[in-house]
Amino acid sequence: MKKYLFPSLRLTLVLLVLLCVIYPLFIMLVGKVAPGSGDGVKVYRNGKVIGYENIAQAFKSDKYFQPRPSAVGYNAAGSGASNAGPTNPDYLKKVNAAIDTFMVHNPGINKSDIPAEIVTASGSGLDPDLSPEGAKIQVKRIARLRNIPENNVIKLVDEHTEKPLLGLFGPAKVNVLKLNVALDELK
């Protein structure tokens, strides 16, 4: 029995120290040298924190770019998805309702031109980014409501489009919060 018990206890203690002390300390140190020092990258306007770069938030006015829908109501305390599949009738009703709402707020847009991300939530419900297409489909509404030429709004979207990492990894994306802050500063 001693032949198996002592090596098992030793292995348990080594793994306990490694996984419960050393690894968490290492992750904490990595977080402290990351942008935002592990507390998230804050976005400021007029010296006040208005949000975090990596967490989506709702914008109530049509004068702003709208992010993806959120299954958690943009509550960063707990991320999550609807967990409904594309054949779920309740989910399809939600998507169709989101399409109808988008069409009401963005007249003149064809349903077939709406990117899926505009009417479907991300896996976390907190995705802060849109594709450039997802942002550009909202340009007409924003330009009309703010009395800004569409070309200026398109230029703003292009300026805030982040290219894929090294030109290869990931899609091009636009951070909605940073874009809306720049939109407010445009005038």
Largest sheet: 3 strands, antiparallel
Detail the poorly predicted runs. none
Individual helix count: 6
Task: Name the strands of the widest sheet in spatial order.
Answer: 3-5-4
Sheet/helix structural class: mainly alpha
Helix content: 40-55%
What does this structure look like?
The protein is mostly helical and 187 residues long. It has two domains: 1-39, no CATH class; 56-185, no CATH class. It contains six helices and five strands; from the N terminus they run αββαβαααββα. The strands form two sheets. The protein has a three-stranded antiparallel sheet with strand order 3-5-4. A hairpin with a 2-residue loop joins strand 1 and strand 2. Helix 4 packs across helix 5 (150-159). The longest helix has 32 residues, at 2-33. The protein is elongated, with a radius of gyration of 22 Å. The model has no long low-confidence stretch (mean pLDDT 89).
Write out key terms for the chains shown.
5 strands, mainly alpha, 187 residues, three-stranded antiparallel beta sheet
